[in-house]
Amino acid sequence: MDTLRLEAVLAPAEGLLIPLGPTPDEAALQRPVTGLEIYQPGTPTDYTDRIVLVMTVIDDAHKLQQIQAECGGAAALVVQPDTAAGLSMTGAPVTPVVLRRSPWVTMDALIRALTSLTRISAHDQTGPAEQAAETLERDAALAVHRRESALLALLQGTTEAAVPAAMLGLRPDLDHVVIASAVVSKDLEALRLSLSVGFPEERSVLSDGVLFSVLPVHSVVAAEALRPGHPVETQARVTDELRARLGRAVHTSEDLPIGVGSVVSGVFSLHESAAVARETLRALKFKLGAPALADARGLRIAGGADVADALALIRAGDALRPHGAALAELLTLLAEYDRVHHSGLLPTVLTALEHRGNLSQAARQLGIHENSLRTRLERIRVLSGIDLNEPVSALRTMVAFLANPGIHNEARS
């Protein structure tokens, strides 16, 4: 029964993995492969006969040799695309083999590809080779889970940030920024690839339908182009550069809003940048009036300053959330009436507010005649007491939609 060899894993992955230094010799290619592991600096880990994914930034030969020595029993090391191709291998151990991940494939895509290719290689075999393929598949899923868990821990805030940051290769001596993207499934891989190619040091994770990406600021804007002590200016430069670079790289017909978080120092405050990015994304998706940056045609990238009005309203709405039910009491009456009579009165109120009293535009969006809209608004006034011609009533209704997401969503459905 054949053992799964490194050669059987790497041959079909040509182009995805690039040798760092000389082409591996035959002895190295015949190393057995029993699984896949993420390099965990400072943590005792058995890397024997594993393909080890190294997220740590390697900027000199000494660092590479240190990792090779620590993973001496591994079948191969896979390092990041930005690892210097000409990095000296003099004095380094012959094994494990060191391979660079192509910048044209994301880490998650590479893990999936290695798993798939290994499964194909072992398809006609039994015993150790097939078992190794199954182990690699399990290890791949575990590696993805560990990487995502480490990044989520940093984005949510943790007092133990040093450990997950080291696993992910995020440097505590650099400034970082988090961006949050509300991307549809069909555009997810394209966006991830664009980020990976444009910003090789980025780390990303998908959480609740939002793609969070951590970027070192120096990979977005050159350090010499920034003035220390000017955070507002730095934030604007980072946002502008992201808008320009991703605008050239990402092409989509779908609405793709991306919120840019605050620039933070090191890795211990990544959760603060993530919170701002998430909040800015909410402002970009704010469904009251025309979307922010609506003329951007698909890709909409904004920092907090670009959506200041929407942000202020979202924060006010969050603060009023405990009073949401009371504020929306009259809207709830309309919602209950709609459920029985299918009259569409609740959506009518929201549409009329969005068009700020322009009955012609509101009627066009609702697909009814302007006179029919006037009749509906009068009916709404009689049934619920909501009078959009009266400033206080109109303001309360607007605030109610902000403070009560449930009634707002029902009006949208």
From TrEMBL:
Pfam families: GGDEF_2 (PF17853), HTH_30 (PF13556). Residues 164-283 form the CdaR GGDEF-like domain. This is PucR C-terminal helix-turn-helix domain-containing protein. Belongs to the CdaR family. Residues 345-403 form the PucR C-terminal helix-turn-helix domain.
